[in-house]
Write a structure and sequence with these properties.
This protein is an alpha+beta fold. It is built from two helices and nine strands; from the N terminus they run H-E-E-E-H-E-E-E-E-E-E. A hairpin with a 6-residue loop joins strand 1 and strand 2. The longest helix is centred in the first third of the chain and has 10 residues. The mean pLDDT is 81.
Length: 140
């Protein structure tokens, strides 16, 4: 299989997901870039030790999430009914939105490929230690 065939096959993969109550659904085509994020902002937004975020183009077949600016650098999308966090859209990255892995219908297919915000990594978190580490200067 040549690189053009691989690219076409990857683009043809459709992934779906949505919020806890099911009122907001999304569709992503292709294989998203998935990473663990250890930054303060993602920890606070997800109430977790880290966020696992795939970045990809997304379409909303029905109702879209509510968006709120979460920092001077980004806005987040969430379900307006029950508050499920769904997205992160950084201002510096145009035409890309990160979706929380746990909101995908088949999250087991989305294995993280690297760590981000590594300097803010909590010492007791043991997942992804063998993956490449990238950092961010932002802190919240």
């Amino acid at each position: 299989m040549n690189t053009a065939e691989i690219a076409i096959r990857a683009a043809a993969v459709e992934r779906t997901g949505g919020c806890l109550c099911g009122k907001i659904r999304y569709r992503v085509m292709g294989d998203p870039r998935v990473h663990y994020c250890h930054c303060d902002m993602c920890r606070r937004a997800t109430d977790s030790a880290f966020a696992a975020l795939p970045s990809a183009g997304v379409s909303w077949p029905g109702k879209e999430p509510y968006f709120r600016r979460s920092s001077p650098l980004a806005k987040r999308g969430f379900c307006g009914e029950y508050g499920s966090p769904l997205t992160l859209a950084c201002d510096a990255v145009v035409n890309e939105i990160a979706l929380h892995v746990g909101t995908f219908d088949n999250p087991a297919e989305l294995e993280p490929q690297y760590n981000y915000g590594s300097s803010q990594h909590l010492s007791w978190v043991r997942c992804g230690t063998d993956l490449p580490h990238l950092d961010t200067a932002e802190r919240w």
